[in-house]
Specification:
- InterPro entries: Lamin_tail_dom, Lamin_tail_dom_sf.
- The chain is mainly β.
- It has 2 domains: 54 residues, no CATH class; 144 residues, Lamin Tail domain (Immunoglobulin-like, Sandwich).
- It contains 1 helix and 12 strands; from the N terminus they run αββββββββββββ.
- The strands form 3 sheets. Strands 8-7-4-3-11-12 form a 6-stranded mixed beta sheet, with no helix packed on it.
Length: 219
């Protein structure tokens, strides 16, 4: 005959052992956060308690940069160039890009390779301007954002959960940099010089009289 209390204790010990394995595996994986679970059992007047920490993954997003902006291009030919300085390709499908008035969700598109470029343009724009070496990111909208404003606006790139990945402004808009980089004309762009430089200051940006859509920036 085995007392019922003894069986309860043995089950609890097995439970604790399994939890120990879960915790060890979670810690070995790294980059985890914890939520807590507790349980208790009573045997012959004694209270036995167990707790467990279950690992949950915290999403991280790679450091892409808005690299060049042609905000005053004729018609709906405005475009935004995104550069991937990381060591692996990045899929931006489902990410968001916005200006001061409107936000667009990036549709399913090819990943931007390491060291590569993606060019965001509306479906009403002249996509033939985008070189074959760059990833075409075509928005199913007649404009990029609320139509990038001549004179001043901002551009913000966000992950699917709304985390800001990169942002910039120009002209009369001072919501990010104050003073802001200059406002480009219809034949110019704003470019990060040197290419991909990101010090989070307006000094990263210079007017380029010969835009380099989908390729390395240079003056």
């Amino acid at each position: 005959f085995i007392p019922s209390g003894y069986l309860t204790v043995m089950k609890l010990l097995v439970f604790i052992s399994v939890l120990g394995v879960i915790i060890a595996l979670g810690l070995a994986a790294g980059k985890i956060s914890f939520s807590y679970f507790s349980d208790s059992a009573v045997s012959d007047g004694n209270v036995f308690a167990a707790s467990a920490e279950f690992p949950t993954q915290t999403p991280t997003f790679p450091g892409l940069v808005i690299n060049e902006v042609a905000s005053a291009a004729p018609g709906n030919d405005e475009w935004i160039e995104i550069f991937n300085p990381t060591g692996s390709s990045v899929n931006i499908s489902g990410w968001k890009i916005s200006d001061n008035t409107e936000e667009d969700i990036i549709p399913t598109t090819s990943p931007i390779p390491s060291g590569g470029y993606g060019v965001v343009m509306s479906d009403d724009g002249n996509s033939s301007l985008i070189p074959a070496s760059a990833v075409s990111v075509i928005l199913s909208d007649s404009t990029v954002g609320g139509n990038l404003a001549n004179g001043g606006d901002k551009v913000v790139l966000k992950s699917p959960d709304g985390t800001t990945i990169d942002q910039m402004n120009y002209g009369s808009d001072t919501s990010i940099f104050n003073p802001a980089p200059d406002d480009p004309s219809a034949t110019e762009s704003l470019s990060r010089i040197p290419n991909g430089t990101d010090t989070d200051t307006a000094a990263d940006w210079q007017i380029d009289s010969s835009p380099t859509i989908g390729t390395e920036n240079s003056l």
